[in-house]
Amino acid sequence: MAHILRTLAALALAGAAAAAVPVAADTAAYLTAHPGGRIAGGDILYGGGAFVVTLHAPPRADALVDCPSGWYCFYDRPDYGYPRGRLSDCGWQSLAWWGWQDRVESAFYNLSRGSVQFLDTGAGLFQISAGARALGDAGAGRNRATEVYRYC
């Protein structure tokens, strides 16, 4: 019994130490500017994980674009420069819900079918799809998207 109590106490201390790990300054600043997110690994999750923000590109040796399978991603800089936002739901969504209106500069579609249209208050700006996945520079549509519509 004493062994079990020591094990439980050690686990409780480990959990308390993990909870005390400081949040990176840029993550804290992002959460202050865009409250409501939850930190999970290197991501910030909103809406129960429906919208995911990644502030820094993970190390990668061979991929130009880092967009997980099953998502469409949009980036705060041309050529897929971070921070990155990602969504996967079908239908219309306001980027303002997530604090991403007027900041998309490039995008990538990593789903097996469908497409997503980026809109500026209802007017089409650009589209990515299973057949035309990559848009390294949104050109005239850069920093203008206020909403998206995913056709599934």
From TrEMBL:
It comes from Dactylosporangium matsuzakiense. Keywords: Signal. This is Peptidase inhibitor family I36. Residues 1-19 form the signal peptide.
